[in-house]
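WARN no homologs supplied; continuing
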Amino acid sequence: MSKPKNDDSNEKDTQKKKMILGVSVPIFIMGIVSFFTDVSSEMIQAILPLFIISIGGTVFILGLISGVTTALSNILKGFSGWLSDKINKRKPFVVAGYSISNLSKPFIGFSPSWQYILGLKATDRIGKGLRTSSRDTLISYHAIKTGKAFGMHRAMDTFGAVVGSLLASLFLIWAWTYSQIIFFSIFPGFCAIFFILMVKDIDPTKLDEKKLKYYGIPKIDEIDKKFIKLIIILGVIEFASLDVSFLIIRSNDYIGPLIFLIPLLYLLSNVVYMFFSPITGTVSDKIGRKPVIIIGLSMLLFSCLILIFPVETSSFSLILIIIIYILYGFYMSSVDPISRAYIADLAGKNKRGRAYGYYYLSVGLISMAESLIFGLIYDFFSYTWAFIYVSILLFICIIVFAFTDFSKILQKKN
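OK structure emitted
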């Protein structure tokens, strides 16, 4: 009788060894990969809108670049998610995606015009489109609790954004040019490529009963019309969002000539995102995804209402923009990882790649229009009307999301 006890204790010890910060080792490694990728990406993102404006771009051009590249990325996520389920492999998409992104975006710094930036940014987003659905599927397979797993992954991802933003601010203080800062991002990119090679693929059809119990059994094994309805609604949330590029440009009105503060403000939002992602993920595991998402959207709505009004550069405006970036970070931590966990809740284990693909496809088709319309209103009318427009959309989105009954989607078919 003592042998089974030893076996049980050994099994528990093995499980403990496989856990780091409350998540499995593969999820932690993917978090490291995302950390280095975001050091690279957010070092660029913190200054990219300023770089585009400096070489002759406009707010509409910002919207065009953001809309087209985001749409391309998300549409490709739809295809890659379907294909990963079709061939039952995820790692090739993840490795290829991280490699393409991290080897292309550093050369944005050598762009003489916004057209070159559009091309290189599109290449970077192609890489993101290849990897994301498969990566999220792997996370869901390795997760014990999906909310915590996605929350922790996003926290590590966002810690990279914090480091990248801080480096960008320091480089600006040290009088580096935008081009030098952007090209430096190639070094953390190489680190991300190295670590992603360590992640093992998973075939969900070969998981034994113990592993299924350990990872958690999905609630539904089919993707039906009700599930597609949820995906579309989550996609509409993306339409009623605010691209950080527009927030960065609007920040100029609040800080005046202190340009080096913009990466620090961006850093602040990422710190908030990093801190709250595990918390919102865990809370959503306990009380449900929907209330957490609604709170996050409400924080963004409040921020956009503040940004409607003109402001004089002063200590008060600096405090105000700090508050806005804090609210933006909380919004991201409440909506981004929780939406992904929602998909894992409702999709079957053999079709999660396709489910994430449909979700990102919906987001991609919607997001391009959102950025282009916002940029047009900002350029041809004013920031006031642009933020009024997005505030109205957010209000409508919150109402629709709050009163949509998702319980029927959670019901299994007889």
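The first helix runs from residue 2 to 17.
OK
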